[in-house]
Amino acid sequence: MKRRHFLSLGVATLAAPVIISRRTVAAEPGAPLPIPDVMEVGPGAGNILSAIKGRAELIPGVESDTLGYGQDYLGPLLRFQRGRTASIDVENRTDDPITAHWHGMHVPGYLDGGPQLAFGPGKTWSPELPVDHPAATLFYHSHVHGRTAEQVYRGLAGMIIIDDPEIDDPLPRDYGVNDFPLIVQDRSFDRSGRLTYDLGMMGRMQGFHGDDVLVNGAIRPKLTVPAGLVRLRLLNASNARIYDFNFTDGRQFHQVASDGGLLPSPAAMVNLRLAPAERAEIIVDFSDRSAVRLVSRNVGSGGMMGGGMMGGGNNTATLDVMSFDVGDASTSGPVQLPGFLPATVSDLGEPVRTREFILNISSGNMISSMLNNLIGQDRQTMGINGEPYDMSRIDQQVQLGETELWRINADMMTHPFHVHGVSFQVVTMGGRAVNPAAIGWKDVVHVEGPTEILIRFDKPATIDTPFMYHCHILEHEDAGMMGQFTVG
Asked: Residue 358's CB: how many other CB atoms inside 10 A?
């Protein structure tokens, strides 16, 4: 089947929804980067996202059992427009319960797609999402408690782009030409080339780490870009791995957006660190026409604070992510970066209360928990504030429209901490004050020492469909490092 690309110059065209058909991903090192097809999701009927069982050739010539939304592995790029309702039918054509969680999106709890909204095989969930979010790059994935890690690993995930017609986006925005989605994942394969997900003790304790890096479902692919400024939308969709991205020639690039949308101004850098579920948009100048590779230092996600037995591997090793070469054409987009971006930096006001959260590597005795994992007992061994997740328990109750300060720390390991239904401002990291505007709006923060975030709760969530807060190392989340809260 020929892949169709739907190009956008900013505002999505909502009149004709696109139904994505099933196809097999075939990839090998150096193969062209697959560009996800686009589903423009508007208020009308016909937007169908089907979770299916797939057979994908992630290694050429070898099929693996996979999952996907509308295709064998991963899903289409969903494009929403701020101020318009996004109506979508999510079908479950797998053998297990699934959800579709709109990670980072500002919607009420009953539309959020968390564990309480899981639905079984043969069922369809038809949310109508009021798109009330700044222009941003978001994430969608299944979120079934106890099964999130494997379902996302097998492919139930994808990217969302939200367009805002009220702003003049001064950045490259010609999708598939100078504006590219990069869904980065680490995966492991057996000797025959089949995708594997085998959790040993260390995988359960510090999260699963794969041996190969995939981008958009392809192993170490190549992308041909135009000479000039190119926008890369990076999503760390790995279960546990932290990436520290940089280019092999040491070139400078500029970050222009974080999890929740644009930064106030471009931030120059030569490396970019993203924990699981974090996103960043960067602008890279390819006008020198030099070929280059994007790599990552092997950070070792999930390591113990300050090092130790769970350090997560060789931190000096380099992971090959993908390569770039420059085509004959020059970009038709902007030729230089603006000094400022149309970002909104809100004053959330003074917090009315402070809450404390400790992320626990074990809700009981750590050694006995590790032994239980060794002998294969399936027990929740992690929690928050000493309690593993319980779907029948509401852990926090917050008031609609109020601002709170959340203090988060961990008893042993570092963790990416995610809060549903909101974007927040990071106030301190590792016990040190930071400039929230420089970091931008976030919905995931990497907790590496005492961390404070400022949150205002503007979307309701009831006792039947509460919001979640959890570690986004998916194995930790499944093991109980998650809580739930109402907003009302």
From this structure: 14
Smallest CA-to-CA distance from 265 within 171, 148, 346 is with 171
CB hemisphere CA count around 147 (13 angstroms): 18
User: Tell me, what amino acid is at 377?
Assistant: Q
Cβ(231)–Cβ(283) below 8 Å: yes
Query: Which residues, including other chains, have CB under 8 Å from residue 244's CB and lie 6 or more apart?
Result: 271, 272, 273, 296, 297, 299
How far is it, in rounded angstroms, from Cα 226 to Cα 325?
Answer: 9
What's the rounded Cα separation, in Å, for the pair 29 and 7?
A: 27
Please tell me the distance from the alpha carbon of residue 451 to that of residue 431, in angstroms, as a whole number. Answer: 6
Single-letter code of the amino acid located at 349: G
**Could you tell me the pTM of the whole model?**
0.90
In single-letter form, the type of residue at position 392 comes to S
CA 392 to each of CA 100, 292, 428, 430, 464: distance values in angstroms, whole numbers, following the listed order: 21, 51, 32, 33, 9
Q: What is the dihedral of CA 126, 131, 136, 141, to 10 degrees?
A: -20
Residues 6+ apart with CB under 8 A from 160: 77, 78, 79, 80, 102, 104, 105, 137, 138, 139, 140
- Distance from C-alpha of 23 to C-alpha of 70, rounded to nearest angstrom: 9
State pLDDT tens for residues 335-387: 999 999 999 778 999 999 999 999 998 644 444 455 454 444 445 579 999 99
Q: Edge-to-edge strands of the sheet including 403-410?
A: 383-384, 353-360, 403-410, 451-456, 425-429, 432-433
